[in-house]
Amino acid sequence: MGNRVAIVGAGMTKFVRRAQETGKELCYEAAKMALDSCDMNLDQIDAVALGTAPDTFDGVHMKGEYLSDGAGAFGKPYMRSYVGGGTGVFSVAQGWYHIASGLMDTCLVICEEKMSSYRPHPQGAFLTIFDHTTERPLKPNLLWIFALEMNRYMSTYGLRKEDIALVAVKNKNNALDHPCAQIAKAVTVKDILNSEVLAWPVQRLDVSPVSDGAVALILTNETIARRVTNKPVWIEGVGWSLETSYWTNRDLCYPRYVEEAARMAYKMAGVTCPRQQIHVAEPYDPFDYKELHHMEGLMLCGKGEAPQMTVDGITQRDGELPVCPSGGLLGVGNPIAAAGLMKVAELFWQLRGEAGKRQIARKPKRGVAQAWGDLMQVGTVVVVGI
Amino acid sequence: MPKKLKSKTQKARRTRQETKPQSLTPNLQFMGTGLSSDDLKKGKVCTTYWIGDTKYAWDRGIAIGKYLEGMKHGKILGVECHKCGRKMVPPRIFCEWCFKPIDNWIELFDTGTVNTFSLCYVTWDMQRVKNPIIPAVIEIDGASKGMGIMHLLGEIDPKKVHIGMKVKAVWKSEKEREGAITDIKYWKPVK
Amino acid sequence: MSDRVGIIGIGATQFRSITPDVSYKELMFEAAVKAYDDAGINPRKDVDTFVTCAEDYIEGTSIFDEYVPDQIGAALKPVHTIGGDGLHGIATAFLQLKTGRFDIAVVEAHCKPSNMLTPDGIEACGQDPIYNRPLKLNTHFIAGLEMNRFCYETGVTYDQCAKVVIKNRRNALNNPIAGRAAKLKLNDFKYAESVSCPLTELDIAQPADGAVVIVLANESKVRALKKEPIWVSGIGWCNGTATLESRDWVYLNYVTKAAEMAYKMAGIADPQKDISFAEIDDRYSYKELQHLMALKLCCSCNPGQCVDNGRTEINGEFPVNPSGGALGMGYMYEATGLARLYCAVEQLRGNAGKNQIKNAKTALVQGWRGLPTTSTAVTILNA
Known about the structure:
The structure holds three protein chains of three kinds. Chain A is 35% helix and 19% strand. By secondary structure, chain A is an alpha/beta fold. Chain A has a single domain, classed as Peroxisomal Thiolase, Chain A, domain 1 (3-Layer(aba) Sandwich). By secondary structure, chain B is mainly beta. Chain B has a domain at 61-189. In chain B, strand 1 (76-80) and strand 2 (87-88) form a beta hairpin. The longest helix of chain B is centred in the middle third of the chain and has 12 residues, at 61-72. Chain C is built from 14 helices and eleven strands. The radius of gyration of chain C is 19 Å and the shape is globular. Chain C starts with a strand and ends with a strand. Strand 5 of chain A pairs antiparallel with strand 7 (119-122) of chain B.
């Protein structure tokens, strides 16, 4: 069933609040680094799969077409996939089916985001994600949906902000070891609880920053993977699922769509007991409670149990199940699609033992990365292993 | 009342952990040049501006058209699928779970229950406000359990808002109503 | 991997200049219901993966992906958006089915350009923000540049371009879902308003609202469902350069590369002989000729002669756009390629009514993403 697909190279730019480079240039830097990392060149790439989230940030219609030459797509089969915030991890699934189909031998997967172009603040662009007739007239802010979801999550399981804040503390501290991190900073629970209230229960330090950046991976089939590296990281499973857009009709306390996506990926990967078989996880953490929410959706713990796992230190880098050892979006930064792909790049480096200061001591063999997006609606999951 | 979670270890409370690199890291060079607001203000880099001319007028269609027409008359309309028995709001001409056309229209109450809410201190474009805007998902009475719409709460002390609170729509006057979601000004607590 | 991919269901709405009666969701629902009925499947149970082709700026909604699942029966299922032409969506479904992990895939594309109040302003956002936009030109200027150079180098005359329009809009008269049918004469072009010389108002395909849904399945599923499918025997897609300043205005290498990929897969050695007819992109009149040339479907070095000698008429030697093309049916942004595919399937099934081509066995369908892109996809279909 399908060809085996491996990740053989990775590259990324620094995540910064405002990059001097254009979107095309960011793409180029990440792609070049990924190619160099496995001693390949663009001529050896059969197809390019691009992921990038809303066009509105850059103010560029058909952004995929605009970025194409920077992404190395000149004269090549090229497509842009798009599932909102879930795009970064989905783009790996996109690269996977290019090669697993047998049509392509190699694929460059690249994700870019440049959020700083939008004026006066990128948040303004998010108004247009809401339903144009029944929601936009209320002038919603993106923070609303997170705050509504977080409140529902907290009240369903009787959680305190102090315990959720531990996620932000962990990830921002983890990011101190990431050379690309935008706002790595040693913070305490107190700092988070004292930060500005944006949309209660969401406070300033519960949130990841807006960023510019790009990440690229090189995917190949088994034959080429064996040739270019002795440490291929295999894509064992991919999954994605999109919930109904009537988000006010469902209970926000649990991400069913993440569970669906995870089940699809686990089935493909032959994972039957995720808590035992997954050694490192990179769930999507644009807000601190989201990491907990997504750990539950990924079935790494039971419903409502993720906070206790965090309190027990299990999710620390030296814990039993390291979660977001990269520093995640909260620490490294959140250039939407690129942030998702950064998570898969982190697993690639962790599994190969190349994560430097961030390296998990226990030598992980299998990891899961997940992203989330749209109107609290889409789950995208990738399982990788060596 | 939220419970305090007790830790078996103190690991999570640490602010900084030390881990030793396990293997030789390849010498990775990361590109990317950050700019500060000052760099832009002082003209360190050239910039170009563009104000997009992007205007739309979306057709409301059958379901939302009727829903908004109902609003104009001070009513909240929903639809019902006889196969799964769900009474839905906002209305749609299809049941997304059964994938069949909708069977009939029903009138719902203009009262409901707060499913979740937030106290928001920033506007949609990140301007700070002193008194919080209170968005909420409100489960509408008369619809199936869990069927809510997003709207705003008003006439309430922000400290007193809670999940499970009963609320009632405050409509604009008949003259002011135009067939829009904003025909309901906000929802206030039921005394 | 030897498993073939077949089209087992198609559905489309009428293509109209305005559709004020329905929302985009209701438009998509109609096309989806028709396609699933045609395929004899239940989307809630039978479909494994859904692909939609859309662009945010056209919808006026950021992350339009959000609003896709419900009306096509895809809630809580694998669904994703491709920022591409409908044929890019077909390519995606094709790849996914070929992995062997999926049995049935659905591709959707739709468009409601009547809801864009400032289409020129919206399309301008597709231009390079740093190099091109400050010139403040209407995006059609790029077609003007291209048409001028193309006609200059190949010797195609403006009359020959006009004849493409006449042919396609006349073909649309007999296409019941077409929205821009007309009976035109060469003389009418004298009075056509110039947009970006030599491009006139009549050279440009006018927008239409509509939705198309296509159901694809792998060979074993086709057999299990006992369907007479239209096989997708070849597929190719390719990008040229994004910059205007460095592109070739005459020979569209990216179209040739995409076609070669599809020909190779379908085992087509001589496209002109092995293919019965073509449904190709005609966003602008000259584009049909330019695409024909790049697809290696021209009889001679001057593609203009193809329209002069009636070769591309419905009863001609090699019919092109018997459906009426985008000029005759309406231009529907990301749904344009899928509309071409829909009509090609109808032809191959023998359902094209008065426009039916005799003995149509193999079709080529090509889509282009419009200005300012150099992005194309090609599909070969077999009855």
